[in-house]
Amino acid sequence: MTSIQGILIAGFVIAAIFASTVFRTKLVYRLMALLLFLTATILVIFPDVTTVIAHALGVGRGADLVLYVSLVTGIDVALLLYLRIRDLEQRISRLVREVALRDARHITAATEPESTEKNRVTTRL
Amino acid sequence: MEPSEVFVIIPAFNENAVLRSTVSGVVSFGYTVVVIDDGSDIPAKSHLEGLDVYCLRHAVNLGQGAALQTGGEFALIHGARVIVHFDADGQHRPELIERLVNPIVHGKVEVVLGSRFLDANDRRMVPRRKRILLKTAAFVSWAFTGVWLSDAHNGFRALSRTAAAKIQLKENGFAHATEILDLLRRAKLSWQEVPVTIRYTSYSQAKGQSMFNSFNIVIDLMLRKLFK
What we know:
A: mainly alpha, B: alpha/beta, Spore Coat Polysaccharide Biosynthesis Protein SpsA, Chain A, 7 strands
C-alpha cells in the first residue's frame, strides 16, 4: 500500500465517523454516508477498478473519471445547500415579521419615550 | 374616503434625522404612517418621538422588500384601503401621494406606480448616469417579467387592499421592485404609471443604489427564476 492510499483511507474513516455523528437521528443519511465512504475506500485500495469503469464509459483514466464525478456531485451539493439557505431565510423572515407585528407600537404626540407597554398595538395574528 | 385609511409604509434602515422630516411630512397630510425599522443600529423609534406613527421593528436586518411586506401585512390587519410605499430618505414628495392614491380610490386600477420619466420636467432632474442605470433596470425588469415600465425601480407606488393581499413579497432585498411586476402580471392586476418628481439630495444619492448593487439585483432575479 502506498502512502497516499493510507492518507486517503484515514481521511475517509474520519469523515465517516464525523458524518455518522452529524446524522445521528437520520438512519438513511447515515447509511448513505457509510456506503459512500466504503465505496471510496474500496476504490482507493483497488484503483484498477476505477480504470475499468472509466474505460467502459469512454474516459481515459480512472482518476479523471473520479474527478468528473466529484465535480458534478460538488455542484449538486452546492445547489442543494443554496436551496436550504434560501428556505431558512424565508423562515427567519417569517419569524422576524411575526415578532415585529406582535410588538408594533403606536407613537403619539403624548407618548413618553419609554412608556412602550402602554402603546402596544394589539395585533391578532 | 378618510386619509387615515391610506397606510403609508416607510421602510427605514439606519436613517438619520432625515427620517423624522420625511415622516412628519407624510403625517401632516393625515395619512396613517407605518415605519418599519429594519434592524437599524440605533432604533428608528428614537427619531420619531412625538409624531403620530406606528413603528414596527425587525429584530435583524432583512432588507427593503421584507420591510415592505411586513408593513403591508400590518396595514391589511388594521383595515387599510390603500397601501403606499414611500422612501425614508426624502426623495419622494408627500403631496404626490394623493396622485398615486386617486386612481385606486376611483376604482380605475388596482396598482399605481410612480415614474420620473413621464413628465419632461421630472426627466430633466434625473442625473445622466442615473438615467442610464434606471433605463437599464427597466429593460432588465422587462426581460424578467414582460412588463414594460418607463421607470421600473421607482419605490413610490400605491396598492389597493385587494392587490396588497395578492402581492406577497419573497425577495427580501431590492429585487422586490421587479418581483412586484412579476406578481402583478401573474395576479392579472390592472395598473398604471403616474408622473412623480424625485428630489435628488446628496443624502438620497448616497443612500441610493450603486452600480455594484444593481449587479446584485440581477443575480437575485436570475436565482429567483431558477429556483422558484
